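Lecture 7 notes: from sequence to structure.

We start with a single chain of 134 residues. Read the sequence below before looking at the structure.
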Amino acid sequence: MAKQVHIVMLAGAMLALPTVASAQSWVPGSEIVGQPVTVTANGIADTVTLNADGTARVVTPGGREIPASWTNAGGQLCVRTGMASECWTPQAPLQAGQPVTWMSNCNSATTWLASAVNTPPPPPPPPEIKGERG
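Now the structure, written as tokens:
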């Protein structure tokens, strides 16, 4: 009986491993690259798009486009517009349609709402195992 309990517990732990592994490989912002996201701070909702090349675009409610850049170093998502820079430390990837409020390094509560997110890439294929004759 005790052996069966250990096997069930081990199976449960094995099921949890892919989730833990994928969470560890997640990079802040990667799920929204190329996707417009509504970012609201102090009652003003801007549309922010992070591009794969590190550039970003902020569109104000009035339609004004502000060039920007972004990085995701050290577990933080940082956006820079001109001389101003603001960083957040997301705890998990954004989910489409689910607003999340993060505190920035400027002590500002900012709500992020993604209308769509990128699908994580599939895992790499296993290495090919060749026979003894290659």
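Residues 30-114 form a domain with the Lipocalin fold (CATH 2.40.128). Keep this in mind for problem set 3.
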